[in-house]
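Action item from last week, closing it out:
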Amino acid sequence: MNMKYCSLSVVMVSGLLASGVPGGLTSRAADWPQYRGLNHDGITTESVTPWGSQGPRVIWKSPTPTGFSSFSVSQGRAFTLVQGEVGGATRELCVAFDATSGQRLWEKPVGVAKYDGGGDSGTSDNKGGDGPRSTPSVDGSSVYVLSAQLYLACLDAATGEERWGKDIIREFKGRNISWQSAASPLIDGDLIFVAGGGPDQSLLAFNKTTGAVVWKTGDEKMTHATPAVATIQGVRQVIFFTQSGLVAVEAATGKPLWRYAFPYRVSTAASPVVGGDIVYCSAGYGVGAAAVRISRSGENLVATELWRLRGDRPVVNHWSTPVYHDGHLYGMFSFKNYGDGPVKCVELATGKVRWEEKGFGPGNMILAGDRLVALGDAGQLVLIEATPEAYRELARAEVLQGKCWSTPVVSGGRIYARSTVEGVCLEVAP
């Protein structure tokens, strides 16, 4: 099989075992089983130790041809989507690696690969490039993949064999988006959530074991954003970022809970971020950012706008979803500021920028304990103290070649990261 080099994301794997995992995932506390982690908030309780001037120790590197899929890590395996040639056709491939050795265990075609001629165009321009951008989700012995053409597949984690599949376009009158889907499937409890269906079934929940439809609702047009799940005001809810704005539904039933109208232009790609009873959202192309507080009004939930900043400065996320910590958002806030876009600390309740530091571009970051792990778009890995007082850099290393528009992950004292050229596993245990 001839494969082009593909984009790599960052994942960290922790080594502690736990039971009673929030959301009902069959996983370990050490795992990073889906996009933005165990609880879809970009946060792990695992610590990351600052490395020395030589950088963190490289455990393994492996080609990961083309795309911006991130890693998911669970039970000793690391999963991502790459682009490759199968039978003379260019396909999206779900690839399983041994998380410790980097050995490629299996690969499974899941759809026709997205192509726009961008390739690996470097960090100095805005070409989106080819290949998949969705991240696999893992639960126990199953891996779930959502292709660019909205095919949802459940695969055997050990072999890659397909257990069940749902064609959202064909079976649910789906309506894909320009540049095709980039969202990742979201698992919570026994359910898996996706958007992209047609009228009266645009938001969908499936039983993760059987693939049976549990509920379907709404006439919302999808975006590139992956939904978020959280408990707010005592209600477990899925928050979809649609073209009409934020739409929250009860996770178990699909019952509508609250809405917040928010403009859509060209592409919305960053996920909603929840901090307590506040929900943050942002999009580029002049749209800007906003935060709403969710409160009770009798038996209903309502969203009240706290602030709204329009335009592509000072607070905007193109696709880089920030993380929440102690009343503040930390992330890469910029729009098409490739190579030099800043990391910022933003007060969630007010939208006030507390500090910023240039030189990152539209990469991504996560929170490990009280430290931020940032992957810049040129492959620089930076450890930053998560404090609103000032930018405090703890360690830095150049770890990847290629364009890095994917998300870092933590698990088992290791960081797993990828670019459009290679993937890497780094040791960062205390």
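Closing note: The helical segments are 168-171.
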